[in-house]
């Protein structure tokens, strides 16, 4: 029966240390990437809800209620809500609980606002702590403003 020598054990520990040193930085940005992905998915859902409401406005000619409890008479002449609520309550239920907030006419999600904002490098199209979302009621576009 043959056992491991001390040298073999040390080599295994060194190799595991090297692998750990390479792997740990790869996992460091997972939390921020998750915030960014969640915010982009939520913004996409907001845009889809706005597009759905506008489509219903076109098809039904003013006699309907959108899926988020906005009646046709609450829409502007372009077929979009004049406001998304504070904060996004009319579009997304419990938006405040998932990290969205509204300040003036700017919307901030979990990656773009507050103390828990993503600290990722400034990449176009991905929210970080300097960015915010803006809603244009005449076009129905909910877009990221990159600062």
Q: Tell me, briefly, the overall form.
A: elongated
Q: In DSSP terms, counting alpha (H) and pi (I) runs of 4 or more, how many helices?
A: 2
Alpha-beta content class:
alpha+beta
- Which sequence of strands runs across the widest sheet? 1-2-3-4
The domain tally reads 1
Distance between the termini: 67 Å
Percentage of helical residues?
25-40%
Report low-confidence residues grouped into runs of 5 or more.
none
Largest sheet: 4 strands, antiparallel
Q: In percent, how much strand structure appears in the residues?
A: 5-15%
Average pLDDT figure: 80
Rg for CA atoms: 24 Å
- Helix-strand string: HHEEEE
Tell me the total number of β-strands.
4
Please describe what this structure looks like.
This protein has 147 residues and is α+β, with helices and mostly antiparallel strands. The protein has one domain. It contains two helices and four strands. It is elongated and about 85 Å long. It starts with 5 loop residues before the first helix and ends with a strand.
Distinctive features:
147 residues, 4-stranded antiparallel beta sheet, 2 helices
In short:
It is built from 2 helices and 4 strands; from the N terminus they run H-H-E-E-E-E.
Write the topology of this structure.
Elements: H1 6-27, H2 30-60, E1 101-103, E2 106-108, E3 132-136, E4 141-145
């Amino acid at each position: 029966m043959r056992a491991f020598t001390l040298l073999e054990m040390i080599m295994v520990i060194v190799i595991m240390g090297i692998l750990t040193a390479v792997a740990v930085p790869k996992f460091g940005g997972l939390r921020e990437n998750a915030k960014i992905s969640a915010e982009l998915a939520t913004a996409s859902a907001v845009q889809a809800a706005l597009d759905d409401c506008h489509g219903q406005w076109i098809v039904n000619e003013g006699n309907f209620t959108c899926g988020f409890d906005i009646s046709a008479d609450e829409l502007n002449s372009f077929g979009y809500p004049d406001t998304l609520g504070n904060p996004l309550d009319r579009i997304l239920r419990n938006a405040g609980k998932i990290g969205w907030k509204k300040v003036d006419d700017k919307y901030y999600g979990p990656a773009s606002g507050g103390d828990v904002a993503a600290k990722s490098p400034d990449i176009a199209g991905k929210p970080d702590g300097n960015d915010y979302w803006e809603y244009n009621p005449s076009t129905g576009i909910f877009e990221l403003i990159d600062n």
